[in-house]
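Troubleshooting: if your tokenizer reports a length mismatch, compare your output against this known-good record of 963 residues.
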Amino acid sequence: MGERGTAEGPPIPPAPPAGGGPGPGPGAGPSPGADAAGAGPVRLDAFAPGGRVYQAARDLYVSEAHHVGPAGPLAVVEPVLPTDEAAAEVFVGRGTEVREVLAVLDPAHGATGMIVASSVAGLAGIGKTALARSCAAEAVGRGWYAGGAVFVDLNGYARDPADQVMPEHVFAPMLHALGFRGRPADSPAGQAAQYHRMLADRAAEGRPVLLVLDNASSTAQIAGLMPRSRAHRTLITSRHTLVTRGSRTLELGALSPAGARALVEEQLQFLSPGGTRTGQDATGTERLCRLCGHLPLALHIATALLARDPDLTPSDLADELARARHRLDVLDDGERAVRAAFELSYRRLTPKQARMFRLLPVNPGPHIATDAVARLVDLADDQAVGLIRELARAHVVERVGNGVWRQHDLMRAYAIELLGHHGDDQGAASSRLIEHYIALAADALSALHGEGSATSFPTVEAALAWCDREHPNLQAATSMAATFGDDDGALRIQETLIALYAHRGQTAEWESAARAAVSFAREAKDHPGRSRALHQVMVALERAGRRAEAVAAAGALLRFQHVVVEAASRAEHPLDCQRLLQHAVAAVAESGRLLGDREDWLLHTRRADIARVANARRLDESFQEIGPRPPRRPAVPDTEDVPDGDFRETAPRRPHRPPGPPGPPAEEEVPDVAVEATRWAREALDRLAEHSPGIAHTVAGAAPAQRAARRALSLIPEGLRPEDADDWRGVCALLARFAAARLAGGPTSRDAGRLAQQNWSSLVLPHVASTYEIAVLAHRRVNDAAAQVRLYTDLAEESFRSGAYPLAVTCRLAAAGIAEATGDEGGQGEALSAAAHANLLLANHEEAARLAERAAPLLTAAKRPGPAGRALTTLANARYSLNSPARALSAALRADALTASADDLPGRTAALLVLGLAQRDTGRAADSAASWQRALRIARALKDPYLTPSTESFLRSVGHLGG
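Known-good structure output:
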């Protein structure tokens, strides 16, 4: 596929921001009415949960739901073992290919250092990986690679392109696997530089390295990993022929008839020594090989069937295989041969073996240890060992290490299909497996922290070794736990990964894992857990030297303590309340360590909140050390609201007060100050109403009213105690009414014609924004976060309708910050999604993608699938505009699924349109046409006066509809 020009963008804007109504559709802009190193850090361990809440298990009803969406692609880098240490396996019939590969892998060979082993016509099960592993093991056994030899599965043929392993996912684990001394850099670019520098150093030392890159689907997956020195060697496998500069290509077809028979004979001799059945039934053996398509995977399985049944002849097995193939006529020859072999092998398993085979794919990672298998099938370890070994003898699983097993990807897909048909209790199996990973992860965490002796890992080194082996399983298990609703379990596993990265100083992974933990804790409603995760984000950024970002993270940690303190105030047991407050005290201290005097007022407020709750619950007096009161901020000058001329500063018109006794002394007249502020707020409304709409909705006409509003604001004290705030809520309500009255000029100007609308957008609306800032500041002083969000949202919606997208972005981000501080994930997600949408219309594609990536998980966690789908549609559009169709495809697939589940038909229409674009540009023309046809059907069924014609217009522009 050729590169698209950078100027070309998607012809459709995204679905409107979450919660914004149908909004604009494809092919046009917004329609009216559419919104679119000092002191070390402390550990915040107070109130770490001691028990777990177990949720009733739910079946997943197979498809691969629990394999989709782990925490990014899983890059598993394994050392290549020499032949005498690798798992025993019969490998025959490829003598010519083995000699050719070894000739290139020999470091003494002076030619190219790269070979690509691919299959004819993309056929799976041809033996590419077996060839690569066998040759690599032989090369290592000959002592050719003193610098190291590693194997990594790039998962190039994953259903979702987002699960493909790219170079940026491989650099850090590759550095670790090759024994890099030091801490990996924080960015992929820095890790790439370290990786290539290490390879250059080893080439200079005469220590060549072998890379085996398995299952690559494109040159993009391998280009960044290619060594720059001819001393090193790279062996790549793919289902397609990859054109790579300087490489030699070896295309594998099916085995020759003689090679296929040799494989059956030697494998059977290996599994069942002394047998003569293949010699006695030569015709049946040849027919069996032919029915297996001469494919190594099918031949291995068929031979295992012969080995398990001494009375079964090759002819009998060939007859069974022929009947199985007949039922599979809808498949092509290669698929039929493999699938038929699968069916015969499965039918010969005992019920316990068959159940284990079906449940193995419930493990979300690439391999599984024997103890995990035992927990998965709920058997004792010795029973599980016997069963898994029998499955290995049947060649439906393979051993990849001491007590570690995995399934071929085709066999795994077959097991998943059977799992759905048999209705096994996946929920219970996954719960047992998650509990197993949680228990061992907790032991590993204790070992890494040096806590206690009753652990599965007697030393830190043992814990690190287990974490290294199980790292991809732990990553995937967090996603599976979250899928089954066990976010507490996901959080516990994630905290072990955080400790692992922190121990090794891998700050990039540390930060990423901590941010994922924030999401898991949010969903689990675990406030201390979320606070601990926010703290880890802060510390990871601090250790990485990203001071400004660490300070921002400290602010987020500090703001979140509002939620922790409120939870403490509602805690039923005094001890729970005390632990939560202790946690908040530690978190405030930690955030203050980085914030210094930047957030004096907020630090004071949080300490005051802690003291208030402690006092109400009659807890220890140490909670009431809240520090000095911050100074009052000066009032904002008023001159900016007078564009021209003079403004006579007159007091608000006071109502007549009847004579009576004198009031209290001036210093005690706090209520009278609130009364005066109320008068000024009413004065603002009255002065605005004195003018006709045409004058009131101008800057000059509204200036006197604006000055009165600012006077009212200046009288509202800062640092109000909660019990005093009620005296000022009336003033705040009046200021909000004044702001709304000014905003009413927007619809009025649109009714008056284009010139009036342009004047409103360019001149008046920025002045109205300052009116809204007055109202927001007033509500901030009485600590009314919900009102602040409403004000920013109203201004953002009018700004969007008026085409003032930068102002809309500013307001949405302000609303998102307030929602985050109060723990409103849904509100934060909707605001970020709307900001992303506006950025997309401004062609700020990178910022749109960044904000949409933040919004989607927040909305998903808040159980808002429709808005989450719309955020992902924005993300897909942004990625498409950035010339990343594969990443756009991943986002659009998820957007389509979420909007469909929410029955959000306008949102799904937009998702399908950008999905079609991404599919077209990634070589999926048939899928693209199907997506666009679905979008057209939905749009026509809706009969929306805007969405339907704009969808049709877009589809004509891409050639899907005739003119």
